[in-house]
Amino acid sequence: MQHDQIIGKVQALTGLPDRGSAEMATRAVLTTLAERLPSGLTDHVAAQLPPPLAAPMRQAMDSAAEGAEGPRATSGERFGLTTFAGRIAGRAETDEDAALREAAAVLEVLDAALTPELTEKVAAALPKDIGSLLPVARAAEDTR
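Below the sequence we write its predicted structure tokens.
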């Protein structure tokens, strides 16, 4: 999926007023996701994204590696939905409720952009509260 397609879909799903806002939201979610995922998985996700969207993920991964040693350098930070939403809100300059809506939209578009196997690995690497934002988790809940 191309950069413009991804941003257009995020804008349509979120109802954000312009492409710049959709770009900011997308980068905020991807950066925060990269902070939470193990670095190897982050690298695989970034490899399947267009370069402008892979860049914030790789920058977050590089920043985490600079400050960590040993297993922590590859394992991603441990935080839940509240921190996830707070970081996105700060980066996207919005409130936490809007950040969660934007995160769900970005993750839905990301689901379509990634291979199904990689999406499953991302879902497995996230705690349930954050994972609940993924379309795969929402679909599983709907069938119960």
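Residues 19-36 form the longest helix (18 residues).
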